[in-house]
Amino acid sequence: MTTLSPDHLSVLEKQSIELPSWAFGNSGTRFRVFATEGTPRDPFEKIADAAQVHKHTALAPSVALHIPWDKVDSYDELRAHAEDHGVALGTVNSNTFQDEDFKFGALTHHDDRIRRKAIDHHFECIDIMDATGSRDLKIWLAEGSNYPGQNDMRARQDRLADSLQQIYARLTGEQRLVLEYKFFEPSFYHTDVPDWGTSYAQVAALGDKAMVCLDTGHHAPGTNIEFIVMQLLRLGKLGSFDFNSRFYADDDLIVGAADPFQLFRIIAEVIRGGGLNNPDVAFMLDQCHNIEDKIPGQIRSVLNVQEMTARALLIDHDALDAAQQANDVLAANAVLMDAFYTDVRPQLAQWRETRGLPADPMAAYAASGYQQQIAADRVGGTQAGWGA
Ligand code: PSV
Ligand code: MN
């Protein structure tokens, strides 16, 4: 099968990908953060930019916040502003990586005062979720150590379990906690949540409302990420994705840019495991646009996810199953590759038009004049950026 059926298209129509507010601010590396004209000066402007992505693609109806970067006086006002722009406020990300007190740890710290402060920061995030209507609290911890012997890793794991328990107990209603893992950076010897197994062990101890977040950039090179996707779905613990792509480390580049085939394989496992358009499995981007324009960078990203989803939907599962049962290694592989190599772009473009969307969202955005408008309008003030 080489064309998308009406069933496939109705699956694609329901797809939604959450955007990170920080993708619209300036970012860079430890060497330099480059400013771009028109960069938002506050969370309201970030939301307005994110809404452009949704307007041109109908793929990105919500925006994740990062606290304290996106702190505002009135979350009711921010929520209304988002709604006026046709988007919703999504996941709230905590931040325990930029406070002097957290230099040697936060939720794992041996000093009770510092650990209390880190837990209280998460309570504040939950209060914000109550106001924004957000469902997910996403926790990524920068803590760990740089040198063997620096820390008692076991004691830190115990304190982490206790801290998470306190945070979990504070959730209400439909709220969830998602725990993101990362095997390095900023700590280089050990991190306290390095891998999916540790995240799984910690969230499994908490309960049903705690899930694992899989950031595609947070694995050692060569890791079979789709295997982890399969396993977490199988265990009912894949809560969310932070999509991005990487050539070397946690590069935070446009999803699907470095290795489209890996993205295809990941989404194929999501579909296989019932995770597509499943509200329990949130699709989010976690990217930075260091040198390219940010809004088109995000448009390209959601289109890449849509395109790989379309290709993965084309996998002929009957043929695949038959080949697998027959131990026909090459035939099974060919079924997958046939779907992967199908160019779905012309059909997706046509389909977009039938829905009143631009056939080419990148071109439509470029022609809209929005980029020039924000460059002209947003003069003065401090551009949002790493830490702002
Ligand atoms: C850490 O590398 C991470 O992936 C976490 O999700 C953070 O919240 C995000 O990047 C932005 O700093
Ligand atoms: Mn992430």
Automatic annotation (TrEMBL):
Highest taxon of the lineage: Bacteria
Pfam families, sorted: RhaA
This protein's record includes keyword Cytoplasm: yes
Biological process terms in GO annotation: L-lyxose metabolic process; rhamnose catabolic process
E.C. number(s) listed in UniProt: 5.3.1.-, 5.3.1.14
Annotated keywords: Cytoplasm, Isomerase, Manganese, Metal-binding, Rhamnose metabolism
Protein name: L-rhamnose isomerase/sugar isomerase
Record-level Gene Ontology MF annotations: L-rhamnose isomerase activity; metal ion binding
Top enzyme class: isomerase
InterPro entries: L-rhamnose_isomerase (IPR050337), Rhamnose_iso-rel (IPR013457), Rhamnose_isomerase (IPR009308), Xyl_isomerase-like_sf (IPR036237)
NCBIfam families xref list: RhaI_grampos (TIGR02635)
